[in-house]
């Protein structure tokens, strides 16, 4: 599974070994993918009498949520629902039916974090109908849309939504629409051999206690699945953009956009549509963490770099919290990615004539021609509103990002009209329609 050099592999394995030894983890596996392919795998500790392998199963915990979310987004892309639909439009009579599907996906619904049952991770689950009956008014903890508040219950509701719209179980939908097409055949609802046993490690002695494992039933969309490092590496590649036809790349990019953040303006962690987000070390990561009794797992993807990382461990708690990012750092240090070779590409002469300097009032901007007939409008000096644009059938241009995302750019002979803002070749061109009439610059 290794495509990195010997020195890199040794450094990665050492970091994994330090984590396993110092954090006292019964067994620990990790893997890296690059450009959609497995690049490295490592395992430490024991599962039974043998080291863990890339085919050893561990519980995924909440990584399950991201796979459920993909089915929900597939339903949206098919036209079966809209993300702003209230839940009750598809689950008539459901409690808290006014909450939108987007709010449930992004953990901004305000619903309680845990189910109104005994500790659901450590007790047998109850059927969905029974759970729905227990979700009274008191389970709404915040005004919907007000803030990020992680909710396992929200994904139980989304699992039921998938089941109703697909006419099957949430699990069968995930298996047929996500896991099977991606070749993730060793990702299952219950453990299969060889699998790790989940353990709690005593805080003051080197002894362990086996943790319970059961079917969470109605809460299972929040954390039921088991998987292997091999399968989770394929999921990391998916999150990096190798969607294998399971999801439109633009939809995956939408899932990675931040909807809620949990630490204010300079956020380092947040949530998109079913995906956790992290900003660390100059990277923007998307993926999910997972925790169930006896297990911890994490998968992150750096889509900009085409690299993904994961780890899986059979311990309830105690990992350092930096392992995944440290592994990416080691890869970057030892084998930094080479930039793609620059090559000239054909340019439409009419588009080429648009490039160069434009002005919004006195402020200079540059318009560049991008591959695939795209345009990029950026302020000179880098301070101000920048956006990319793609052509539309009616001759206008659609903003992709930044302040002008979703807005319309119209190109005239002597000016650009960007959602009523006028850009001209010369500062305040007197011939421009707005502001117009400027005739004299003076000291």
TrEMBL record:
Protein name: CubicO group peptidase (Beta-lactamase class C family)
TM region(s), chain numbering: none
Residues annotated as domain DUF7586: 348-425
Species lineage: Bacteria, Bacillati, Actinomycetota, Actinomycetes, Streptosporangiales
Organism: Nonomuraea polychroma
Domain Beta-lactamase-related as annotated: residue spans: 20-318
Gene3D superfamilies cross-referenced by the UniProt entry: DD-peptidase/beta-lactamase superfamily
PANTHER family xrefs: D-ALANYL-D-ALANINE CARBOXYPEPTIDASE, D-ALANYL-D-ALANINE-CARBOXYPEPTIDASE/ENDOPEPTIDASE AMPH
InterPro entries for this protein: AmpC-like (IPR050491), Beta-lactam-related (IPR001466), Beta-lactam/transpept-like (IPR012338), DUF7586 (IPR056008)
